[in-house]
Every structure is written in structure tokens, then in C-alpha cells.
Design brief:
about 350 residues; alpha/beta; Rossmann fold; 2 domains; six-stranded parallel sheet; four-stranded parallel sheet; 10 helices; about 20% strand; globular; DUF3326 domain-containing protein
Length: about 350
């Protein structure tokens, strides 16, 4: 009898200051590790993007956050591809020299990595990105002209026949000095991440097409004290390469699911999430499925939404190393509780059915 594929979802919500995964691709080692013991690892750009650094594996699926929410709700399926034709949207608000740097980055990825980079388009109006911070400390933002973004995307899809879209929007350089300094020191929230998510969500929701974003910013002055977690963003003028690599093999988002070819949310075996960030749409939907939810305690965020507060049953672990051990047991059909010194006793039905710890 064939064993079904072991499918894991790794989520580190963006813009909430996660100790691991809240910086420049610093959750990539976790994704690479989980991919070694999974047939399918589904995760999102915040986990896999590392500015000019990236790591692509054939069983690792790059799925934008809104698409991941729809997948978790069993509304959309994921259809694996060999290669996407990636179109590029550039914000009209990007200065000519900075625009050229991003076009050169796209040309380099096309030539050096052999990716199928299609046409680019410049929005007909500056997008006007503004950054905001919530009371919780999480970052978010607004776009003054979302209609311009959608027109550009529609043109690329309809006339250039692209199957994925990378967006580069001009972001403000005048971030509060303290906010930027804290982030570069590995202590704060990524002030850009929340607004980036809004940009990609808009295109994915409207067109059901893979999308991710790279901000355009003026280069920062050299700082010898930058944290290793933020160092990937110090390497050059653009964060675009990792986005193009991720989108090149991002699964297509399918609304009419083919049971024989498309991955579905109901096929997910396990979900790994920071223990205090369990209020997102994906987790709420996965909690209604058969998937085991593994809550990692030492990846603290600015959120205070525990699984217990929402009535979500989880397997709590201290670290991602422990989470890897739990995933190995789940893949092997072994009850993780059997590996603990004090395994719980079998109880009569109706007694002692509480959240797993």
C-alpha cells in the first residue's frame, strides 16, 4: 500500500517582529530543514525571501499569504509547475537610477539563473506607499493608488501572458530612525513587511496569480553593528532576486481543483506556527482540519494570540529543533507522546480530552 505524501505548512506571519523569520530570510534554515523530512513543504515569501539570498528546493512551495489563506480554507488548490513566466511591475515613483538597478537585477537573474523573466511595465501613477504601525507593534501600510497597480497587473496578464508577477514599489526612506536602527540590530519589527503584504494580497485576490513584492529603497549607510539576521538586506541596491527565484516555481492558484494533480488544504498533515501568533485565517482554518498544529514557544512575536485562547488544539514545543522531532514522528506514524519521559495515560472517552502539551 502506498503511503500518502507527507505535507507540512510553515507559517511565520509577516510584520510582527518574529524572533525567527521577522528579518531578512532568517527562517530559511528552518524551511530547508523541514523540507528534508517532508514530501511537500508549503510556505510563504516572508519565510523564503532573503533579499539577494535564496534557496530553492523542488518540494518547497512559495505561496503568497492571501493564496495560502484560500488554500487553508479549501477554496483554492496549488498546482505545481516546472517554470512560470514572471512579469515585473515597477512603481512610477522609483527614481530613474534606482529603476535601472532593479531592471539590471532582473536581467542578471534571467541570464545567470536561466529564469523566464517576461516583460516589465511601469505603473501609470506613483503608487504612493505609506507605512503605519499598529498598537500591537505590528507593521502595516496603505497604497494611495491601488487602481494603478491593478491596471499594470491586468496588462501583463492579458497582453504579456505572464503567469506570475513581481512588484517593486518605492517605499519611504524616512522611516523613524529608532525603528530602522532596532530592525538592523535584530530587535525590532520590519516596518516594510505589512505594506508589502497588502500589495501582494491585492493582486492575488484580484487575479488568482502568484505574486510577491520587493521594496525599492535608497541604499543605507554602512553600519558595522548590523545584526546577522538583518544582514542580507545590506548586500546591494535591490531585494528583487529572491522574489524572482521564488515566483519562478511558485505553484499556480487553482479555483477549479483537479483532485489528481492539485494540492489541497485538506491534505496537509502538519502546520508549524509561532505559539503566540495563532489568530490568522490560515491557522483558524487548519484548526478545523485533521492537520496537527505545532506551536513553537521560543519564536516570540508582538502578538499575544495563543492557541488556547481560541480553543485550538496544538502540540506545544519549545524550539524548531523540537518541532522537527515531532514532524519526524508524525511522518513515521508514531505518537509524539510516546517519546516523552512521562507519557500520558489512556483515558476513558469523555475524560481528560484537553489541549496536547
Amino acid at each position: 500500500m502506498l503511503t500518502p505524501p507527507f505535507t507540512v505548512v510553515l507559517i511565520v506571519p509577516t510584520g510582527i517582529g518574529a524572533k525567527i523569520g521577522g528579518y531578512a530570510g532568517d527562517a530559511l534554515p528552518i524551511a530547508r530543514s523541514i523540507a528534508q523530512i517532508s514530501d511537500h513543504l508549503i510556505t510563504h515569501p516572508n519565510v523564503l525571501n532573503g533579499a539577494q539570498l535564496y534557496w530553492s528546493l523542488p518540494n518547497m512551495y512559495y505561496v503568497e499569504g492571501y493564496g495560502l489563506d484560500q488554500f487553508a480554507a479549501n477554496r483554492w488548490g496549488l498546482r505545481p509547475v516546472h517554470q512560470n513566466r514572471v512579469g515585473l511591475i515597477l512603481d512610477q515613483g522609483i527614481e530613474p537610477d534606482l529603476r535601472l538597478r532593479h531592471l539590471q537585477a532582473a536581467e542578471a537573474v534571467k541570464t545567470t539563473l536561466g529564469l523566464n523573466i517576461g516583460d516589465y511595465i511601469v505603473t501609470d501613477t506613483p503608487l504612493g506607499v505609506q507605512l503605519q504601525t499598529a498598537h500591537s507593534g505590528a507593521s502595516w501600510g496603505t497604497i494611495a493608488h491601488p487602481d494603478s497597480l491593478l491596471r499594470a497587473a491586468a496588462t501583463l496578464i492579458e497582453t504579456a501572458k505572464v503567469s506570475a508577477i513581481a512588484v517593486v514599489a518605492r517605499f519611504p526612506d524616512d522611516m523613524a530612525t529608532e525603528t530602522l536602527a532596532n530592525y538592523r540590530q535584530g530587535k525590532g519589527v520590519d516596518a516594510l513587511a505589512g505594506a508589502e503584504a497588502i500589495i501582494s494580497h491585492l493582486i492575488v485576490r484580484e487575479f488568482q496569480i502568484p505574486c510577491a513584492h520587493a521594496p525599492a529603497l535608497s541604499p543605507l549607510p554602512v553600519d558595522e553593528t548590523v545584526s546577522p539576521r538583518a544582514a542580507a538586506e545590506e548586500l546591494g541596491y535591490t531585494f528583487l532576486p529572491c522574489v524572482l527565484v521564488g515566483l519562478s516555481r511558485a505553484p499556480q492558484l487553482i479555483t477549479s481543483i483537479d483532485q489528481s494533480t492539485d494540492l489541497q488544504g485538506k491534505q496537509v498533515d502538519a502546520v508549524v506556527i509561532p505559539a503566540d501568533a495563532c489568530g490568522g485565517s490560515s491557522i483558524l482554518n487548519f484548526s478545523q482540519s485533521e492537520a496537527k498544529i505545532i506551536a513553537v514557544e521560543d519564536n516570540a512575536t508582538t502578538m499575544t494570540v495563543s492557541p488556547e485562547s481560541l480553543g485550538i488544539k496544538t502540540i506545544r514545543v519549545t524550539s524548531y529543533l523540537e518541532a522537527l522531532g515531532v514532524l519526524v514522528t508524525l511522518r513515521g506514524g508514531i505518537n509524539p507522546d510516546a517519546l516523552r519521559v512521562s507519557a500520558s495515560s489512556i483515558s476513558r472517552w469523555g475524560e481528560g480530552h484537553e489541549t496536547q502539551h
